[in-house]
Amino acid sequence: MLPTLETDRLILRPFEISDASEVQRLAGHIEIAQMTLNIPHPYPDGGAEIWIRSSKNNSREGSGFPFAVVTKDDGQLIGCISLNLSKPHRKAELGYWLGKPYWGHGYSTEAARRVLSFGFEELGLNKIYAIAMVKNPASTNVMKKIGMQWEGELKEHILKWDVFEDIVYYGIRKSDYESL
Ligand SMILES: CC(C)(COP(=O)(O)OP(=O)(O)OC[C@H]1O[C@@H](n2cnc3c(N)ncnc32)[C@H](O)[C@@H]1OP(=O)(O)O)[C@@H](O)C(=O)NCCC(=O)NCCS
After folding, report:
1. Measuring CA to CA, which residue among 32, 127, 145, 33 is closest to residue 87?
2. Tell me, what CATH number does 73's domain have?
3. What is the pLDDT of residues 79-89, one digit of tens each?
């Protein structure tokens, strides 16, 4: 089951069906869809409910840990951060998006640091990695700030909206994390 985690300014908690309209409103911004692979645009009615139900199943099975990122001050849902596990390899992919009004305040870095410690200390992972399009420096900055290191770049590896995009991998091993 998905726990609730806390940072200085944020609560990371399971999504509830009642979050669906905010998820649709925030993730529906074109600049979120533009930089991610799995967020549709326009965001369809009912899509957030389906996503929340399937993400709850994933956390029940222990294969995915999608946290709603909520501000402590006012309980506002501002985004999502998740770990998707590959259990045989004791590794997980970190993914995140934040509603556009909340960019640039260090929230993603703060949430990502907490999820990293959850992954290593509570899930017993050996490695956590993240993938971004090369044209997404905000995302790669988050990766660098939490101690991930550049592992490689794959040229024209994905087709996004009719353009072949280069992607970059960043990662951190448990041994690196322990010496941060
Ligand atoms: C990527 C994203 C989650 C970052 O969220 P955020 O809370 O604004 O991130 P943070 O404030 O913690 O850190 C972002 C860093 O990138 C920097 N940054 C932001 N835009 C930048 C740009 N265009 N070029 C270079 N650096 C940039 C910020 O200055 C900050 O670094 P700093 O703290 O050293 O100043 C957010 O922009 C987003 O949701 N984007 C759309 C979805 C997405 O890209 N998801 C990730 C897919 S891999």
Report:
1. 127
2. 3.40.630.30
3. 999 999 999 99
